């Protein structure tokens, strides 16, 4: 008499067990999906930072083909094209990003950057102008400064550079760009100060060291600045100073600086040797 009762109970137990199993399988699948997302995110980061730029372009191109429409993969491709210096392709890629429904103002700033890299200054300016002024980021103002420089709008450029400096903890590059802006205007003392500020934040930035020499040479000050430099850098800076002197027709000083550069360099300094030989041959002829 108990069998009819036992049979439904067994069925209920089997159904419950099956439901538990399905629930467990779903949880496993969700966990695996989460794990795959984490693994993919880490892999994306690797390709965006430490991998060869062209390899990164190939990786994100394949990823976009396999999973089209994902804005993170579109961004990865766009950033990789910039790293690979394939700037024309990067413009098209960033245009695709900014056309995406999930695009944001940072993406539009990146598009403006790509326009600048391809000398499309008007499009870069228009792209930035379309971004609300409340979007205040370091890169936005650095690009605004560069565009103002290209238009010789010096007061605007100075203002934008000043804002950009205040929005980053690593302002060496901004000071270097600002200094070069001053250099092109003929404001050599201001330029020298900006390059000094760049080196204060990044003592290893050789571009800023070279630019200081250009600024001093433009003032006919042919003494090297007191800045950190190794022997090879010293030779290269003497070479830059020599060329600056020669350009200003201070030929004797330039020849002396070239000889000092050749003597200072720990190896054969071909560029300085060739320049000195050309000067001496010109004097002989």
From TrEMBL:
Organism: Yoonia ponticola
Any coiled-coil regions, as ranges: none
Keywords, sorted A to Z: TPR repeat
Record InterPro entries: TPR-like_helical_dom_sf (IPR011990), TPR_rpt (IPR019734)
N-terminal signal peptide: none
Swiss-Prot/TrEMBL TPR repeat ranges: 172-205
Protein name: Tfp pilus assembly protein PilF
Top-level taxon in the UniProt lineage: Bacteria
Pfam families referenced in this protein's UniProt entry, alphabetically: TPR_16
């Amino acid at each position: 008499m108990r069998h009819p009762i036992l049979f439904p109970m067994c069925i209920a137990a089997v159904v419950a067990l099956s439901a538990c199993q399905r629930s467990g399988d779903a949880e496993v699948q969700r966990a695996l999906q989460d794990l795959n997302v984490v693994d993919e995110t880490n892999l994306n980061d690797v390709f965006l930072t430490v991998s060869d730029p062209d390899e990164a372009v190939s990786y994100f191109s394949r990823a976009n083909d396999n999973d089209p429409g994902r804005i993170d993969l579109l961004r990865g491709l766009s950033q990789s094209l910039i790293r690979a210096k394939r700037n024309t392709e990067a413009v098209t890629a960033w245009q695709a990003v900014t056309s995406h429904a999930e695009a944001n103002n940072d993406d539009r700033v990146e598009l403006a950057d790509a326009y600048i890299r391809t000398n499309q200054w008007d499009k870069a300016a228009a792209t930035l102008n379309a971004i609300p002024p409340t979007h205040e980021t370091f890169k936005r103002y650095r690009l605004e400064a560069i565009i103002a420089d290209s238009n010789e709008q010096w007061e605007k450029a100075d203002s934008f550079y000043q804002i950009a400096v205040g929005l980053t903890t690593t302002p060496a590059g901004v000071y270097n760009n600002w200094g070069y802006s001053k250099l092109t205007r003929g404001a050599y003392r201001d330029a020298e100060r900006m390059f000094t500020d760049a080196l204060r934040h990044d003592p290893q930035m050789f571009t800023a060291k070279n630019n200081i020499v250009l600024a001093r040479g433009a003032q006919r000050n042919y003494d090297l600045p007191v800045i950190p430099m190794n022997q090879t850098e010293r030779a290269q800076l003497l070479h830059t100073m020599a060329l600056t002197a020669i350009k200003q027709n201070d030929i004797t000083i330039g020849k002396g600086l070239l000889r000092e550069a050749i003597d200072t360099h720990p190896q054969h300094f071909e560029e300085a040797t060739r320049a000195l030989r050309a000067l001496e041959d010109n004097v002989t002829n």
